[in-house]
Every structure is written in C-alpha cells, then in structure tokens.
C-alpha cells in the first residue's frame, strides 16, 4: 500500500496560499477554506493512519507465554525440595546451582531475541525455537551439575524434556533451539568452572582454627567449619565479596550482647518453654534452603501480577536475577563470616560462665532447635539471602504490597503474608527461634540483603540499549 507524503502535502498547500493575490483569489481562498473545514476530520483520520514517519515507534513485541520457563523452574524447585528439617544439602551450594540453571534459561532466550544483557553466552541465533532452547539448557545443566540428585530425578527430567520437545513442531527451528540450549549450558558451566576449588564442603586449606577466646568461632563437629573458601569464588553481579561487609558484631562484654544472648538462649533452645508454638512453627518453616523457599515465593508473586507484564523473556530474567542475587548474597555473607569469625549461640551459651561478660549465665547442655550449621555466626546468611531475593522482586515488579502464600518442605501447611517485606522479616527472625543467630546478626544480615538486592537489580542482566539510527 502506498503511503501518503504528509510533508509534501503541507508544503504544496502552503505555497498555494502564499500565491493568492487578487480579490477573486481571496474569495477562492475562503471557499477552499470552508471546504477544507468540512473534509478536515476525514482527512485527519486518513492522515494519522497513512502518514509515513521517519521517527516511528519500535513495534511492540508479541506476548510470548512463559509456560516453558515456569515448567522447568518448577522441575528445579521439586528436585531441591527436601522433606523434613535438616534434610538435603548445603543451601549455599544449592544457590549456586539455581543461579546456573536460571542464568541458562535467560541466556538461551536472549540469544534468540536479545532484549537483555546475557551472563555467559554471547552468540545469537534468531531462528532457534525459544521453548526448545529453554528445555534443553536446563536438562543439560542438570546432567552436569545435578550430582547426587541425578539418580533420583533422572527419569522425571527425561520425561519433561521428551514432553517439552514433543510439543514443538519438528523442523529447523526446533533443531536450532536444541543446539542452542546445549551451547548455552556449556557456556554457563565453563564460566563457573573455577568455583570447584572453593566450594568443597570441609577441609579447605584456609579454614580458620577453632577459637578459645570469648566471641571467637569454635568448631562444631563433625564438619568443624564448612565452606571456608566459598567467598573466594567469582561473584555474579556484585563487584567483590567484601562490597557489603557491615559493622562488627557486639563485643561480648557489652549490654547489647547480653540482651541478644538471653533472647536466643530462652527462645532458640530445643526444648524452650518460653517460645510459643507459633514462633517454633515459623522458625522451622523457614529453615529449608533459601533458593527453594524464595523460588516458591517468586512463583506465587508472579501468579498474582497481570500476565502481560511477564512474558517468556521477562519471567526468565526475573527468576535469573532472584537466584543470582541469592548466590551473590551468599558469597558476600561468607566473606563477612570469615572476616568477623564470630561464635555461634550454641558455643556462646555453653561457655557462658567463662566468657568476659559477668552477667551471662551459661548452660553446658544447651542445644539449638535444629542442628547449628558449622560456619561463623555473623551476619545471618538466611536473613541476607532472603532480603536480597525479596528486594529484587519488589524492585522488578515495582510493588511491595503483593500478598504471598507459600509452603515449606520442612513444616506442614502454608503461611500467608500481606506483602513481601513481611515475608522478608519473618524469614530473618526465624533464625532466632531455632537457635542459630543472635538478633544483631539477623538485623544486619537483612539490611545488607536489601542492599545486595538493589545492586543486583540495578546492574544485572540489563535491558539492551536501543541502537540509534
């Protein structure tokens, strides 16, 4: 269809009007103006529909369903859901894997349609099928990093891949999508290959020795000190592992320390008579690994926002940022734990009669509600990672007042919250009620997590800049 040259029309008519000289010309001009007034509305409609503008808006990309991303996201969540308190394996290690899976899905989609910056893969293939690429990248990564879960979940991953690819018409686009998924998985794996030397669970060469002085971390058998090199792996988005190091914990001879000591001693003990049933319930509810818990929250929150706001690309990016934020928060908090090397409540309370605070009363038989992780106390990793994930959701969706209902692998039933900050706060406080942390570790961890979330949101996987013409 031919387009109407608007500029030419107005220029010609402008010249004609300037050329009117005589009275008859003026009368003719008036007649033409009256005619123009009559036909103008119709002309304007045609004008708006047909004018060819050089500064035309970029066409809106058609909405694409996030169904495939959400299917594989849920498959990951199921694989890392452990039933019963204390089951499963180390949350920081799980966080690294979740970040790899979700960075993979994000990179695969943005290799096809580059809307956002990618993490590890920088080639493009606009002819690849997005769903095939998403399915294949997660499947291939699970084959490489699934570890001890592979024998348990191999059949379900195989079945989901078969169903996912079976739903896509055969052809070149499908084959290109499969090949792209494989390539992205390899790129993610290669980029995180150097992590292996720093993520061994125990026996890292730089492990701190067990403390003897008041306030210094004391080994907790059988691992004594776990993941002592975890903070040395490469960060994902944050600049360095010490970027968010905060103020030190309270001196053990201070009145503030005494208040925190007595609180966790009374309310975090395994057989506490002061802790309410509700406090115990949410303490254990939140004890499962952060990645699984906050992935469930992300899914619940996303289900409550208009579908048009979260297409395939947006959904993949949001989930990638959430899990990258958790992974970076773990790296940052482990740096602080090594730096401050502060003792856990279980050690502090058992040694309470021999510390440098005259007002603490010890209990050599004291036990935390759940087995205390053998890592430094300060600050709380759980509070920091939960706040990072929650803040990314808030910033991305531009709304903190989204209600939440979630479940847990560690406690029956669900818990509901009026907004995301309420869930963040309860997640943090839960560590006091299972005896893991002093209150200051929880408060500082949460505050730091908000900062990590802000930084990751503002600097990670950013929208591609429009090229100027």
UniProtKB/TrEMBL annotation:
Source superkingdom: Bacteria
One Pfam family named in its UniProt record: PAP2
Residue intervals of the Phosphatidic acid phosphatase type 2/haloperoxidase domain: 326-448
InterPro entries linked: PAP2/HPO, PAP2/HPO_sf, V-haloperoxidase
UniProt source species: Algoriphagus chordae
Name of this chain's protein: PAP2 superfamily protein
